Automatic annotation (TrEMBL):
Organism taxonomic ancestry: Eukaryota, Metazoa, Ecdysozoa, Nematoda, Chromadorea
Name of the featured protein: ATP synthase mitochondrial F1 complex assembly factor 2
Transmembrane segments: none
UniProt GO cellular component terms: mitochondrion
GO biological process, one term: mitochondrial proton-transporting ATP synthase complex assembly
Domain of life: Eukaryota
Ranges in a coiled coil: none
Length: 138
């Protein structure tokens, strides 16, 4: 049996803590949703820091499932739908975090908080409508 353990240095911990503390409550809520969706902290972090596309992160998150499907077979339509749904969830969470973490100045008198709320609602609208489309295809 192969066993490996990761060593997390105090410096690594400080960097992650600093990054997390730089976000507001709503952005952290979006991050939690992303982490729970793909069962990883590093993959959503990579998406939110523009190092990976959501599709690539989901592809990596589903490595074990793909290996199991290659070994034991898969239900043809189910795994594709699950991957699309997971991609939608991660992308929506990343948008939610982005819109809640970045201040945007507008000359037309729209308050920053109102704008953030509108953009976050738009991200959720995209997420829910994407899931409805996936379910209709079944």
């Amino acid at each position: 049996m192969i066993s490996a353990s990761a060593v997390v240095s105090p410096e690594d911990t400080r960097i992650v803590e600093k990054w997390l503390l730089s976000h507001n409550f709503w952005a952290l809520t979006g991050m939690q949703y992303a982490v729970e969706s793909v069962k990883s902290v590093l993959l959503p972090y990579s998406v939110m820091t523009f190092k990976l596309q959501a599709e690539d992160a989901v592809h990596r998150a589903m490595l074990e499932q793909r290996t199991q499907a290659e070994t034991w077979g898969s239900v043809e339509w189910a795994h594709g739908v699950e991957e699309e749904e997971l991609t939608t969830r991660l992308a929506a969470a990343a948008l939610f975090v982005y819109f809640n973490s970045n201040a945007v100045e507008w000359a037309h008198g729209v308050e920053e908080e109102e704008l953030t709320t509108r953009l976050a609602a738009a991200a959720l609208f995209v997420y829910f409508n994407s899931n409805a489309v996936i379910k209709k295809k079944l």
